[in-house]
């Protein structure tokens, strides 16, 4: 080995080392503004991609929109350090540890309860604020985790709508591999009972990797339901809706889905999805969101979905809590950000800009807001059917 | 009773697809004693070819189905020459070919991911008319008819090819004794290439049917079917076309009955439990072929 | 060695299996229609020589020519199609095919342009020689008796309409009466059996010599006699099989 090769290798090792531990959460940019870096474990590919991509878009847009105000108010800016997890828990945990080493005060995950569950211990241990777009309950004693998907309230809204439109015999299909979806089913069953229906007439578990639903659908058809509730991830739900149409014998049965639904259901199912409804965490038709919707369309040339709104909300939430910490003269640490979340949610800033109306957090970190019920129209557009 | 009948129909449709997959796999085993696991990736490619032909080039199903099957056949022939053929002279050629096939399968699967840009795709809407009919209280869909029809015709054609034609005789002779077959004027290499082609075609047909029925195409699709098809093959007793078809149907029915009367969560437990049971009670499989007539 | 009227000629053929030399510098030739008895004890190299002609085992040195052109390195199916049919040792039949399928397989595979008529006349010739095969033509060939399988193996070679037939120990493991009847057929020398040259590999010299024009005697891989069958003496044969008197005295085993 010649001298210069050895030198080159040593130099690149040094460069790697430097890049690994050099940057932390508090760099200063060229114009003297303090830069706060936040780590993101993005599900840009794999099963979480239908949620991760719009979430990230919304987040980026929020940071862009809030940058001016934030600089004026606190002379800081937020930078996102984002890497793809391919929707795999182990990758997310690895990223979390990397972000902890870089001493970021906060980390973000767009969706998927299993990922939130895997990352929360790492966030807690390293005292990092952890905002997740997921909805399943995870152990979170020190309160570093905040999850933005409110499964229960929107499912209560959906159950009310199903019953009030005259449906009594509801059958359910659940992805048993996903604990959040399983508890969504339980919550919905309770809500149905509260509305005077005897729970589900049939309950079929499927695996997240299943592709053939003929046997499951046969069982469901045997129970003769007037509504079917499909609580699986969006693409699989689309496949189920499509197979329901292919299979036949479900004429006049209302198809409905959980908050996990979105435009992907229509993309997969096509016309078979027209007329089906789902509990949306957020929908573009909400009056207060007009500005956000318009801006999003301009930026990305596509309609925002619920997870775009959650991402946008997350961006403003981060900005608001950083602002709150700095306003008190504190240092931007994970602990301080965690404690500032309550103030941030109540701030006028968030109320003015955040698309999710009526948001607040419960003690365990779960978000609460009412959500809406929407219906697929003939072209795949959704319309709010609740008032 | 009605539920039983309905689940039987579901099981038959599913089982026919398993049988197609398993048949291709066992043709190769009979021909070369090679465990060609890249077959699963060829299956996945079959569905991808169908997607390319329909979604990208706008061809109708009547063209795309045979087209995708032929392309899958050609791909499998390539697998033979690239992964397996050159190992022929090795003493441990079966093992070497297996490992080579595992590697090839991984590469082919990755290539699909790249080709599909890491997303799940599906065949375009309206490619096949969706109807369903009630017959004696049972609901039968056009897709189920298509599966059973196409798979049935394929199986019958394969059976005729194997029993009635010179090609079939040559394939059976090579399966029985490669050296002897070559003394009798049969080019073993060209027969092997042909067997890989047929096997790929079967995988391609199965893949297109699956893609149509389950509206989902991704890179790993074939892997899920590999284990089930192997089970079908072992249940059927490795032997005849008939054995594999029966094995496929048994697996398909077991799968849908379990969902009907237990829960879909027990499906794999039941299927593999059945496999263990059959292997204990009847190690030669349900339809053992006399050893003097082994294979194909 | 090669003369213009030779159909098939082997020149100094050497065959090795790893470090074992099975055949050393073997040379002999076959004229059209001639019957050559290829004689030798167990392990003398008869099967190896026949396989090398068919292209089933590689030749380490030497040359094999058919009608003057080399057939070394040709694949077995090509050798068959150029006119050399091989009926292997141990009555190997394709047990998963019926008797007639066995015949049809070779009938078609050996000549790509075989017509239905060619095939039928081939069947006819085979069934005339071996009426037992006709009776069993729809039966799985794995279920035939040993003698019947041997008949099938010979008939199959006939189906290829060869110029040279390689028959490897047609008497192996058969009852004397069955051997008799097979030799009776071979000695008819009509049709294909009459036109083709035959290399008849046998351990038992006497029966083969009744049929042969020429004898080729192998001893541990070397040709120790090649000449008219009638001139091969009993001593030469015994010496090739058991070693010479001196060798026997020295107590060395004659064959492996
Ligand atoms: N595939 C093989 N690998 C290694 N050695 C072999 C192989 N085939 C044959 N031999 C050896 O080559 C020599 C010649 O064998 P070959 O079968 O040609 O004899 P043969 O004259 O046909 O004997 P037999 O009368 O017993 O059939 C023997 O010593 C044998 O052990
Ligand atoms: Mg021999």
Question: Can you walk me through this structure?
Answer:
The complex is a heterotrimer of chains A (387), B (296) and C (256). Chain A is an alpha/beta fold and 387 residues long. Chain A contains 13 helices and 15 strands. Chain A has helices at residues 3-21, 49-74, 89-101, 113-125, 151-164, 179-194, 214-222, 234-247, 263-269, 290-300, 306-327, 334-346, 348-353, and strands spanning 26-28, 34-42, 76-84, 106-109, 129-132, 145-147, 170-175, 200-206, 227-231, 254-257, 277-280, 360-361, 367-368, 372-376, 382-384. In chain A, a hairpin with a 5-residue loop joins strand 14 (372-376) and strand 15 (382-384). The termini of chain A are far apart. Chain B has one domain (2-9, 17-221). Helix content of chain B is 73%, strand content 3%. A two-stranded antiparallel ribbon of chain B has the order 1-2. Chain B is globular, with a radius of gyration of 19 Å. Chain B starts with a helix and ends in a 15-residue tail after the last helix. Mean pLDDT of chain B is 87; it is low at 290-296. With 256 residues, chain C is an alpha/beta fold. Chain C has one domain (8-245): 3-Layer(aba) Sandwich (Rossmann fold). Helices cover 38% and strands 24% of the residues of chain C. Chain C contains 11 helices and 10 strands. In chain C, a hairpin with a 2-residue loop joins strand 9 (214-219) and strand 10 (222-228). Mean pLDDT of chain C is 87; it is low at 251-256. Chains in contact: A-B, B-C. The structure holds adenosine-5'-triphosphate and magnesium ion. Residues 46-47, 89, 168-169 of chain C line the site of magnesium ion (MG).
The averaged pLDDT of chain B comes out at: 87
Query: What number of domains of chain C?
Result: 1
List the total number of helices of chain C. Answer: 11
Largest sheet of chain C: 6 strands, mixed
**Which sequence of strands runs across the widest sheet of chain B?**
1-2
CATH class of chain C: Alpha Beta
DSSP summary, beta strand count of chain C: 10
Derived structural class of chain C? alpha/beta
Q: For the CA atoms, what is the radius of gyration of chain B?
A: 19 Å
Point out poorly predicted stretches of chain C: 251-256
Shape of chain B: globular
* Radius of gyration of CA atoms of chain C, rounded to a whole number: 18 Å
What fraction of residues of chain C sit in β-strands?
A: 15-25%
Count of individual beta strands of chain B: 2
Order of helices and strands of chain C: EEEHEEHEHHHHEHHEHEEHH
Label the structural class of chain B: mainly alpha
Bound molecules: adenosine-5'-triphosphate, magnesium ion
CATH superfamily heading of chain C: P-loop containing nucleotide triphosphate hydrolases
Major β-sheet of chain B, in short? Answer: 2 strands, antiparallel
Q: How far apart, in Å, are the first and last alpha carbons of chain B?
A: 37 Å
């Amino acid at each position: 080995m010649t001298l210069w090769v050895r030198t080159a290798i040593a130099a690149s090792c040094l460069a790697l080392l430097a890049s690994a531990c050099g940057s932390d959460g508090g760099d200063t940019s060229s114009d003297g503004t303090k830069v706060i870096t936040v780590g993101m474990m993005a599900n840009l590919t794999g099963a979480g991609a239908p949620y991760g991509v719009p979430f990230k878009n919304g987040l980026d847009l929020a940071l862009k929109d809030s940058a001016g105000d934030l600089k004026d108010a606190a002379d800081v800016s937020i930078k996102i350090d984002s890497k793809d997890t391919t929707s795999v828990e182990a990758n997310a945990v690895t990223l979390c540890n990397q972000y902890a080493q870089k001493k970021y005060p906060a980390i973000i995950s767009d969706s998927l309860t299993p990922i939130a569950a895997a990352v929360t211990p790492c966030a807690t241990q390293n005292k990092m604020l952890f905002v997740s777009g997921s909805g399943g309950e995870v152990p979170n004693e020190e309160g570093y985790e905040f999850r933005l998907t409110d499964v229960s309230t929107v499912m209560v809204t959906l159950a009310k709508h199903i019953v009030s439109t005259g449906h009594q015999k509801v059958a359910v299909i659940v992805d048993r591999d996903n604990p959040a979806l399983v508890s969504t089913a339980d919550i919905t069953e309770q809500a149905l009972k509260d509305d005077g229906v005897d729970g589900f007439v049939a309950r079929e578990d499927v695996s997240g990797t299943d592709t053939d639903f003929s046997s499951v659908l046969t069982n469901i058809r045997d129970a003769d339901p007037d509504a079917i509730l499909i609580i699986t991830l969006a693409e699989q739900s689309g496949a189920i809706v499509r197979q329901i149409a292919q299979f036949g014998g479900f004429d006049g049965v209302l198809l409905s889905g959980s908050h996990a639904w979105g435009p992907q259901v229509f993309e997969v199912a096509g016309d078979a999805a027209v007329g089906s409804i789902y509990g949306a965490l957020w929908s573009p038709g909400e009056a207060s969101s007009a500005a956000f919707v318009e801006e999003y369309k301009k930026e990305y040339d596509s309609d925002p979905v619920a997870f775009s709104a959650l991402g946008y909300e997350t961006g403003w939430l981060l900005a608001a809590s950083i602002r709150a910490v700095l306003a008190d003269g504190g240092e931007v640490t994970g602990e301080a950000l965690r404690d500032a979340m309550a103030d941030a949610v109540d701030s006028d800033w968030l109320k003015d800009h955040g698309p999710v109306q009526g948001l607040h957090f419960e003690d365990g970190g779960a978000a609460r807001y009412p959500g809406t019920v929407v219906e697929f129209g003939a072209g795949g557009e959704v319309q709010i059917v609740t008032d | 009773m009605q539920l039983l009948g309905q689940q039987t129909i579901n099981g038959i449709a599913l089982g026919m697809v398993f049988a197609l997959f398993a048949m291709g796999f066992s043709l190769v085993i009979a021909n070369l004693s090679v465990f060609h696991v890249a077959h699963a990736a060829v299956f996945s490619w079959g569905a991808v070819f169908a997607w390319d032909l329909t979604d990208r080039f706008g061809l109708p199903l009547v063209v795309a189905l045979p087209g995708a099957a032929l392309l899958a056949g050609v791909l499998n022939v390539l697998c033979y020459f690239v992964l397996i053929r050159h190992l022929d002279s090795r003493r441990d050629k079966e093992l070497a070919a297996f490992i080579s096939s595992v590697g090839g399968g991984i590469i082919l699967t990755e290539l699909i991911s790249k080709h599909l840009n890491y997303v799940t795709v599906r065949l375009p809407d309206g490619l096949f008319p969706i109807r369903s009919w009630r017959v004696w209280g049972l609901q039968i869909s056009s897709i189920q008819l298509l599966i059973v029809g196409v798979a049935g015709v394929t199986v019958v054609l394969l059976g005729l090819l194997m029993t009635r034609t010179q090609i079939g005789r040559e394939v059976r002779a090579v399966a029985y004794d490669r050296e002897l077959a070559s003394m009798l004027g049969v080019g073993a290499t060209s027969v092997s290439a042909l067997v890989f082609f047929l096997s790929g075609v079967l995988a391609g047909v199965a893949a297109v049917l699956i893609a149509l029925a389950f509206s989902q195409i991704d890179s790993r699709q074939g892997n899920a079917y590999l284990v089930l098809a192997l089970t079908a093959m072992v249940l059927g007793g490795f032997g005849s076309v008939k054995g594999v078809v029966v094995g496929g149907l048994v697996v398909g029915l077991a799968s849908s009955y379990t969902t009907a009367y237990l829960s879909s969560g027990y499906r794999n437990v039941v299927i593999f439990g059945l496999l263990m049971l059959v292997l204990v009670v009847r190690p030669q499989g349900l339809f053992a072929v006399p050893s003097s007539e082994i294979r194909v | 060695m090669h003369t213009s009227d030779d159909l098939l000629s082997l020149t100094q053929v050497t065959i090795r299996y790893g470090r074992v030399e099975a055949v050393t510098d073997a040379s002999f030739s076959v004229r059209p229609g001639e019957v050559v008895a290829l004689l030798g004890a167990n392990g003398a190299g008869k099967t190896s020589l026949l396989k090398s002609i068919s292209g089933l085992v590689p030749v380490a040195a030497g040359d094999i020519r058919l009608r003057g052109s080399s057939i070394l390195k040709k694949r077995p199916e090509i050798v068959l199609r150029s006119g050399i049919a091989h009926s292997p040792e141990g009555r190997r039949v394709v047990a998963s095919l019926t008797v007639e399928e066995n015949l049809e397989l070779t009938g078609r595979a050996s000549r790509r342009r075989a017509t239905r008529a060619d095939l039928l006349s081939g069947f006819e010739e085979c069934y005339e020689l071996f009426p037992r095969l006709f009776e069993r033509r729809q039966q799985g060939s794995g279920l035939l008796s040993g003698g019947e399988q041997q008949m099938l193996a010979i008939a199959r070679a006939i189906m290829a309409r060869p110029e040279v037939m390689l028959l490897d120990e047609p008497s192996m493991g058969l009852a004397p009466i069955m051997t008799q009847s097979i030799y009776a057929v071979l000695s008819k020398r009509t049709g294909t059996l009459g036109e083709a040259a035959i290399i008849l590999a046998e351990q038992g010299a006497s029966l083969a010599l009744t049929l042969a024009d020429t004898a080729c005697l192998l001893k541990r891989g070397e040709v120790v006699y090649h000449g008219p069958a009638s001139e091969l003496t009993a001593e030469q044969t015994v010496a090739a099989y058991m070693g010479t008197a001196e060798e026997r005295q020295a107590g060395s085993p004659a064959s492996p």
